[in-house]
Specification:
The structure is a homodimer of 143-residue chains. Chain A is of the alpha+beta class and 143 residues long. Helices cover 45% and strands 22% of the residues of chain A. Chain A is built from six helices and six strands, in the order ααβααββββαβα. In chain A, a hairpin with a 7-residue loop joins strand 2 and strand 3. The longest helix of chain A is centred in the middle third of the chain and has 13 residues. The radius of gyration of chain A is 19 Å and the shape is elongated. The structure holds a DNA duplex (25 and 25 nucleotides).
Chain lengths: 143, 143
DNA sequence: TTATCTGCAAACCCTTTGCATTTAA
DNA sequence: TTAAATGCAAAGGGTTTGCAGATAA
């Protein structure tokens, strides 16, 4: 079993939910998938190994994985949503005070989603990004 | 008539299409709207002035406006699409291909709005920003 | 005149929900 | 034992499409 599937099981248990055959199957296949995958494609992959599983269950499990912070949903363009593994040791961006030099680290998944959508519009696949916001922090502003 | 509505009419004519009452009405209301507006809200606004217009026509006109480069559609989060005027003389950010070095300029008002929201969360007021997206462009990806 | 438009209703597509049944704990 | 999960079918919600009648050029 994938390390992340085990982590998912712990998350499930922690919420007082049940660890089912289907959830484990979906997680296992999801974590062995590289890049993005749609709910439907994941459903097809899992179906190959565990016939009879429902597309609905795949959707529900993907939602749980997302809540667990193990998956991330993207909506590129106008098409169907796709999911990818969420890596928690992630990039962060910076807020920089132009007066006192104070630096605050932050991350904003919603901004990153948009960055990817922009990139997609131009045919790009984002590998990395740099976002720096320059301005005045509260104390410099009120001082 | 709005300067941009006139520009839209020229675009329409250039494509051998017809300048109709409805298209002009939608464009006129759209260009007098600040910020983002959904197809449905635009439909409601136009309906007030031109009863009987169809939501379908609003969608079709918004598509034409977008093709003309006069409108821009955004899909924030998972919700319905919204449109805004496309302004060609603004700050832009960069998309950089890490393989061929190709650089594309883009601007994304929605990202800037979110940047300000994030900054505000930390007590900052944004004066400037730098956003660089690094990745692979279409040709480098498919090559 | 005639190709394009319009508005309505129906279709679409992806995703979620309702519900009766099954299952993990 | 029993609260939670499953799978099916049906509903949702925003957007698009088919079509017959209307209209701009």
């Amino acid at each position: 079993m994938h390390r992340k599937t085990a982590e998912f099981s712990r998350f499930i248990a922690g919420k007082g939910l049940k660890s089912t055959r289907q959830r484990t199957a979906v997680a296992e296949v999801f974590f062995s998938t590289r890049g993005h995958i749609s709910a439907e494609d994941l459903y097809l992959k899992v179906s190959g190994l565990h016939p009879g599983i429902g597309l609905t269950t795949v959707y529900r499990t993907l939602r749980l994985l997302t809540e667990a912070g193990l998956a991330k949903e993207h909506r590129f363009g106008e098409s169907q949503g796709v999911f990818e593994k969420e890596d928690n040791a992630r990039h962060h961006d910076h807020l920089i005070c132009t007066r006192c030099g104070r630096i605050i680290e932050f991350k904003e998944p919603s901004i990153e989603k948009m960055q990817e959508a922009v990139a997609e519009k131009y045919g790009f696949v984002v590998e990395d990004h740099k976002l720096e916001l320059y301005g005045l922090c509260r104390s410099c502003r009120t001082a």
